[in-house]
Predict the structure.
Amino acid sequence: MTLDALLRFRELRAAAVLPALAVAALLCLLAALRFGSVEVGTLDLARALLQRLLGHNEPSLASTVLALRLSRALSGMAVGGLLAFSGALLQALLRNPLADPYVLGVSGGASCAAVAAIALGAGAVAIALFAAGGALAAMLLLFLLAHRALFARDAPLDQGRDSAILLTGVMIASLCAAALSLVLSLAPDGRLRTMVFWLLGDLGGAVSLPVAALALLAWALLLALGLRDAGALNLMLGGELQAYTQGVAIVPVRRRLIALTAVATGMAVALAGAVGFVGFVAPHLVRYFVGADQRVVLPAASLTGAILVLFADTIGRSVAAPLQLPVGALTALIGVPVFLWQLQRP
Amino acid sequence: MATAAPLTSALLACRALDVRYGDRWLVRSLHMRITAGERWALVGPNGAGKTSLLQVLAGVRPPDGGTIELSGQPLQHWSVEQLAELRAFVTDRWFDPFGVRALDTVMAARYRMRGAASGAGRHDSQCERLARQCLAAMDCEALAQRDVRQLSRGERQRVALAAGLAQETPLLLLDEPIAHQDPRHQVQVLQQLGARTACTYVGALHDINAAARFATHALLLTGDGSWQTGPSVSVLTQQRLSPLFGTEIVQIEVDSHRVFVSTGGVPS
C-alpha cells in the first residue's frame, strides 16, 4: 500500500474508530462479568442485572457474581480510561512520545502517600484518600516549581517550556521514588505484600458500585473538558509560536490541560494503585491507526485504555483462578508485545 | 472581523520601538509606517534582530520600549483571537512530533474561523477547498495527503507558507520565506505572494536579489540598534549594503533588473 493510500485509509478509520471501540469496550465488559473463577452465562447475567435494576434481589449465583464483578469492571474501565486520557494529553502537550501519566510525578506522590498510609495500618478508603492527597500535593509542587513555564505570560514561546515542565516532573517523581523506597525499607514485613500489590496496580481493593459509577462519570467529564481544547492542542503540536499567531492562547490552555491530567492520574491511582503502561501505550496505538488529530485521539485512547485494563484484569482473574494476578503486571505483559508489533510495522 | 484601515492611515506603525536581546540593542527607537499593499523586506546580517523584530511585530514578544499600532489600535489592545484575523506569521521553525497530513496543517490555520471545539472541521469542504487553493499557490498541491514529517525542508516550508495564506489576514509576517527554496520556487513563491496585491508583507530576506525584486520597501538592520528605512530602490544600493554586511557588494544591471553580486572584497 502506498503512503498516500495508507493516510487516506486512516481518515476512514478515524470516523469508524470511536463506534468500533465503544462496541469493543462493551464486549470486554460482558467478558469481564462472565469470566473469572466462576463462569456465568450471558442470559443469567442479563436476568440478574434486570432484577437488580428493578429493585428485587433474588439470591442467585449470577446476582452475587454480578455484584462482585460489576463495580470492579466499571472501576477498571474508569482507571484505564483516565490513565490513557492523561497519557494522550501529556504526549501531545509536551510533544514527547515517551511521556506517560506518571512522568510528572503525580503518581509518585500518590504512591508515597498510599504506601505511608498502608505502613500506618490504614484501611482501603483511607489509603485511597491518602493517594488522592499525595497526587494533589505532587501537582501543587509541580505548579510551584514549574511556575515560570506554566504561568508566565511573557516567557518566550517554543523555548524550553516543555522541557522545563517535563524535567521538573521527573525530579518530583525521583524525589517521590526515593521517599517511597525509604518507607518500603522501614515498613513492617507483614504489610509489604499489601504495599507491593498496591504499587503494581490492583483492582481487587473493595470499590463500591457508586464509587465506580462516579469514577466513570468523572472520566466522561474530564474527557469532555479535554476535548474543548483538542483543536488548540492540534495547533500547539505544530509549535507554540505558530499556534499563538493562529489564535491559541497558549498559557491558559497549557495550564488547564496539565491540571486535567493531574486530576485524572490522581483519581486513577487512588482507585487502583499505580497501574503501569496503559497511559503510555494506548495513545501510541491510537495514533498509529487514526493519525494525530487530538479530537479523535483523546476519546479513542481513553476507550483503548479502558479496554486494555478491563481485558488485562479479566485475564488476571481467570488464568490462574482462584489466584488473582495484579492488573498492573498484565497490562504491560499484554501491552508490550502489541506495542512492539506496531513498532515493527511500516 | 478585520477592520480595513483607511488607505491613508498605516496598517502597521512603529513609534520609538526598542527591541533588545539580553543587554544588546537590536533596534533602537524605530519609526516605521507600513501602508496596506506594501511589501517590506527586512535585510541585515546574521543576528541583526530580524526574527526578534518580526516576533515583536507579531505580538508574540513584548517590545522593550515604544509602541506598535496594528489596524489603528495599539497591538496589545487586540486579543489573541483578533490578532489571528489581522496578521499571520510564517516562522522558519516547525515542530512535527507526530504524523499529520500537509492538508490538515493548512486547514488547522483556520482554527479561529472554524471555532475551537468544532469537530466538523475535518469535513468542512469550504475550508478544505481554500486549503487546497493555498497549497496550489505554493506549488505543493501534490503534497496535500503527505505526512509532513516526510517532506523535504523546502516542501515543508511551502506548506507552512500555504498555512499562512490560509489564515486570510491583511498582514503577513514572513521569516526567511524562501530560505529553503530552489531557484525556480524562490521566484514562484515570491510571485504568488506579490500577486496578492491586497496583502501587506513584512519578510526577513537574506537574498538581496529576491528582496530587490519582491519588496517595495526595505528596512536595513545593522545589529547595533541603528536602522534605515525607505523605498527599496533607494535603500537597497551597493553603497548601503556593502557596509551593512561588511563585505563588498556590487550592483549590476541584467535585462534592466538590478542584481547584487558579492565580490568577496572588503568594503572601502
Remarks:
- Confidence is low (pLDDT under 50) at residues 1-7, 116-122 of chain B.
- The radius of gyration of chain B is 19 Å.
- Residues 93 and 220 of chain B are 23 Å apart (CA to CA).
- Residues 237-268 of chain B form one domain.
